[in-house]
Structure prediction request, 285 residues.
Amino acid sequence: MQVIRYSTSLLLGILFSLTELYAQTKSPKGSLFIIGGGTRSEALIADLIKTAQLGAKDHIVVLPMSSAEPDTSFKYIAAQLSKAANNPIGNLNFDKTTVNNVKWLDSLRTAKLIFITGGDQNRFMKSVLNTPVYEVIHDAYKSGSTIAGTSAGAAVMSRYMITGQQALGDTSYKETFDKLWDKNIVFEEGLGLLHSVIIDQHFIKRSRYNRLFSALNAYPDFDCIGIDEGTAIIVHNNKATVSGVSQVLKFSKPAKLSKTSTGLIKMKDLSLGIYSSEDSFKVKN
Prediction:
């Protein structure tokens, strides 16, 4: 009988790979509260506080780096949150001088609720990508914290983040796309709290259907979700539940994707769901 011997380094390598795979597939204990922008009602904020399950000794952290006026952005959301909860609310406006601040990072890691404000999602990711802040947000989510965001703070939840820019033709910024062309949508790296989902915000209000069709064409195996203003999805594991006054649309499973010789997108069919408050649906995560 032939005896097969494996080296210690090979066995350790296999063990490390399995450990990494388990870490990636293990479901986070926390939740995501993803708001499509616009006015946040008292009922929506109440659902946020309920989702976060704040205890008497827990604290909240606001990350205002998306905003061009971070102090003002913090002021508005802090005023809303303080009406619904008595917990301390911290303002951590990270920049290159503070991304390694141990005290700030510890406050972020132990926050039961982390809220990412609106503004410019590209500005936010430039502040946190490849810094300890990025890792700490993930650690908090895995450990049971609720990560919330509105508008730009919603867009950053995706691994592939919609920037709002078009790559072809007239590349000046528009609230929606005026064409359905292959390879027209521009993505940047987001937080990746949702691995196989792309989020778009202000969706019905700004008629961003063409943006999300373009995203689905780029990543046909993903769920592409448009969240309207005043509305949120609460994501825990692979379930999303709608809260708020408007609707959420989910595009997925495009059939027979193709393009014309001039680059126009074509698809034979797709799955479309339209959901409103208290509806739930499955998402890839």
Summary: The chain has one domain: 29-282. The first strand starts at residue 31 and ends at 35. The mean pLDDT is 92. The radius of gyration is 20 Å.
